[in-house]
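Hey team,

Filing this mostly as a record. A colleague (T.K.) asked me to run one chain through the structure pipeline before their review meeting, and I want the input and output archived in the tracker in case anyone asks later how it was produced. No errors, nothing strange. Just documentation.

Input sequence:
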Amino acid sequence: MTPLRLGMVGGGEGAFIGAVHRMAAALDGDWRLVAGAFSTDAGRNARTGERLALDPARVYPTIDAMLAGEAALPAGERIDAVAIVTPNHLHAPMAIAALRAGFHVFCEKPMAMDVREAEAIAAAARASGKRFALAFTYSGYPLIDEARLRVARGDLGAIRRVQVEYLQGWLSAPIDGEGNKQAEWRTDPARAGLGGCLGDIGTHAFQLAEHVSGLRVAAVSAELSTHVPGRRLDDDVAALLRFDGGARGSLTASQVAAGEENGLRLRIHGERGGLEWSQMEPNTLVLRWLDRPSEVLRAGGPGLAPETAARLRTPAGHPEGYIEAFATLYRAFAAALRGEDAAHPGVVDGLRTMRFVEAVVASTASDDKWTAIDIGETE
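Output structure:
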């Protein structure tokens, strides 16, 4: 099958997430990077294109130049989609421009700076008829699919509790004021948006909790904290969750949990049993039962649903991790563009997470015990 053609905005020399996107997109052969506007620094932009062996004529100085240049090419040569891997403040203007120019979009999360921008992206996607995908990477792990399937078919019974935590320690020191570029923009309200830790990893935790449980959070009682003196956005999040249907839960996210690496952990309990999954041991899903011994499911091992097995790339005992999970999203995005029935995180996930961010910020500022999450008109 001929690979789809990808153009990238951001992700130039020295960036982290751009390289991850490129590896993920290439892994299954569904995508080929053919164009990019990688940096506003002309030298860095040119060097990135050269290292990626791109035609210099398709290494553009800006996204506007890329959209115009690619649109002028024959249909069989121009890019099919734009990957946006920039800081948050550029997501909305770039996504809207790409959609209006007739290109599909695969965007880093969070979707935008705020709900208003997210709704504008959603409107542009509807008007253009083009696909919009979001990089909620952790929903791409095979055993997350297994967990979601088991909850959906009722194995655990009616869901009573959903607990999700995402703990990192990399911002425990004030590195955002010491020249660390990744830390600097993530703690800058002008570039990160309403939330620091909340927007960066709290959105991942929220999306995963709703994705696997199949439930929607109706209201939050939350507190944002900033532990490092002088930091302008939150670095710690604590939220109680009320789900539609009566389930209760909690979400904890922190980037000042010293010593933690990437501790994303999900637990869901129903009337008959519960499950547990950890991102740092992603090939294991633990099932615990009220009336029988616990089970440990392993990627590639027995007991997995055919849908889960179809997502695996390696035999049992060969670890599949972050790049593979990311690649699963790109594979689903490609399949959807080819007209196949393939689901991927997109507009609804983006709107839900931005409304969650807004509700947590409002809850923190309010003396009321609970803050409802706006249902919105575009979901």
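Quick notes for T.K.: The two ends are 33 Å apart (CA to CA). The mean pLDDT is 96.
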